[in-house]
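Why does this matter for the project? Reviewers at the last site visit asked to see concrete outputs rather than summary tables. In response, this paragraph embeds two records directly. Each consists of the residue sequence and, immediately after it, the corresponding structure tokens. Nothing has been edited or filtered.
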Amino acid sequence: MEAVAEGLWGLADYHENKGEIGKAVKCLEAICQSHVSFLPIIEVKTRLRISTLLLKHTHNVNHAKSHLERSQLLLKAIPSCFELKCRTFSLLSQCYHLVGAIPPQKLILYKALDLTSSASQDVAVKLWSCNFNSQLANAFIIEGDYQSSISALQSGYVCATEISYPDLQMFFATAILHVHLMQWDDENSVLRSINQCDRVWESIDPNRRGQCLGLLFYNELLHIFYRLRICDYKNAAHHVDNLDAAMKADKQKMQEIQQLSSELDALNQSLSRPDLPSRERSALAGRQAKLQQRLRSLEDSSLTGKEFLEPSYFGNARQAWGDKLVLAPSPMDGEWLPKSAVYALVDLMVVILGRPKGLFKECMQRIQSGMQTIQDALLKLGITDGVREVDLQHSAIWMAGVYLMLLMQFLENKVAVELTRSGFVEAQEALVQMKNWFIRFPTILQACESMIEMLRGQYAHSVGCYSEAAFHYVEAAK
């Protein structure tokens, strides 16, 4: 029966490589639904594979969850299989997160941490412990339990320190800073966390830092948020310049990779011709080798997450290679936000710092750039003109909320710029867009309602409608 399972696994690989995910899942489910029993480990591996496919390529989280829950039951009777158990715990935790079942998620993560604490404390075990502590911290954040979240992240930091992984230490240091910035109950704690991030970043080998693009963006953005919070715009500008330069360099690199890949595809097609003269074939083969070498050097210059098996924590796994800003090594998938959202944030930071200086032309260019990036991302999430909040899949709500909130921030800045330079028609159009988005997604954008009323008040005040402005300010205060 093992040969049958291997055959069906191979067939599933074939269909997945062709993008036929439904057929791949059917091949694998044939093993689970067979009247003849397979070995429990074969069934567990198959169910894990099905769950990974479903989470990566579909919104069918409940189907994936049922396979993982069955795998967990099967693994209870097997004393070994540490890696399989950890993968099952990790994926099941993510499923509970995606359906909003936080208490079961925490329970499964506590079981996972118990498993790692009782295992031999080698590097692989420590890495899994880091994975589970990271997910547990995220669950605590959703419940608003900041202190427990920081404790879980500090446990992860200790594990990373014990195995001497500076970039993993940096991941936990920045995550701790992120929680402190959200909580902000003690400015001294925030400052200590900032200093810790600086120390850990400096401890990473300079050559290695170039491969940690996700950490660079995450760390610099958190530093900017801190500087903006304390109104230190001068020092914030330095971090924005760093981010802008890194973003432009990465865009240029990804464009070169795309061009090289296209050229390589054309070369491969030419080399497949049977009637190609030997001299021409030799020249093309030489060119092919050079292209492949250049492509490998570009791909190896950053941590892209190409080798990661786990889908991301927020249901955002369906991304092409190169679209992930990975923060931590496998088995973690420490992506904070998709690359497109991070790029939009960089544009937004440039706008926020450029507006007070009167750099309106550059601000409007960045607003248009950021809004286009967000619109493209919303389309990929299935959010077209007719889609409303009630139409969204639960697993897409969090990521849709990220992009929609960013979109509202860009529109807010657009209104502010247009009112400053007396572009009343353009300001009114942006306000109408904000109101329409709010009507379609009232729960996700609930926090923007006051901001919209304030902007409407500012618009009314700018055009001399003072009683109407007062009305909107009162509404904003409510």
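We now turn to the second protein, recorded in exactly the same manner.
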Amino acid sequence: SGCGARPLTHCLQPGAMGGEQSLALPPGKGPHGVGCVDVMVGRTRQGLFLRLFYPCEPRAGAERPRWIPRYEYSRGMAQFGGRSPRWGAPLLHVAFGSCRVPVSWKGPFKPRSGGYPLVIFSHGLGAFRTLYSSICTELASRGFVVAALEHRDGSASATYFCTAESGQEEWIQHQRLPPGQKEFYFRNMQVHQRANECVRALRLFQAVRGGQPVPNVLHPDFDLSVLKDGVDLAKVAVMGHSFGGVTAVLALVKEPSFRCAVALDAWMFPLENTLYPEVPRPVLFINAEKFQTPESIAKMKRLSSRNSQTRIITVLGSVHHSQTDFAFLTGKLVRRIFNVGGTLDPHKGLDIISRAALAFLQRHLDLKEDFDRWEHLLDGVGDSVVPAAPPCLSNL
């Protein structure tokens, strides 16, 4: 929904134009039902935009949110993928316009004494807040509040904010590397903005906890004060994929309240070398088999040599997109266009990633759960997982 919260009449229904459901996101496997709402705070670019996943009370016939919330995101994804928006956007819209996330839209928050631990999630380059719904849903079903950010540094395929003057939407398009600019400086500037947004997301929850009114621009009917006692701010982690993975690492440097980071196939390139010695907390690096470079792995190893609790594991048979919702695509056409899909079954891949993350979060957030039954994954022990870097890089 946009600034005026008007209905999305332009979304295709299942079966329209032959666009049968090509995506089935898995529901969470944990004991909690999962609720979901979009949260936009502030009416300038400096505000915050995130999708909140949280444990909720079960509700019959609950509405399920669209996976791609607006047509503009299909256009942004087509452009990011180097395709013409004229045909790429309608194609994506036919493929995904009817797909929904298996969560309860604005479902009633399920209170818990002491509150739930919090995970701030940072998306990858060319992504946006909904493309990691499967991992966010799984974590929420296990008893986490997850805030999936939509970054405004120009790295999202598209995003927007609602202006104060007229309540109009102002869209921020994906920003390509400016001609003549060195990529490191451009990406380094972005990663610092992204990490600052992660810190500001934590500040948002601190404000709610402190009883400050925090109006939700998009959904005023969802009162954030229901989270006042619902989040345990002593148990906060940061997580992300690719550009979001290195964002999570940098967030540890900027904010001492983040107790650990989970970095999914982190793109380590944008972080300046002087900051590696400054990373104070443990990181779990979960790499795909087919993405990493020797330089990136060397940076991860540099962190693990400084912190005995940092772990690096690799999921065999997975590619970079295996850690996004795209892993669950069945359409051959879309796989060909976006060159996604590894050999590992996506449900098995999600299990490995989420269970390793849960075991790591239990260890470093001092949770009283049974996630330690998956601790072997942190040592790279198990089916389709190996310790350290991908085998193809090990002889470099």
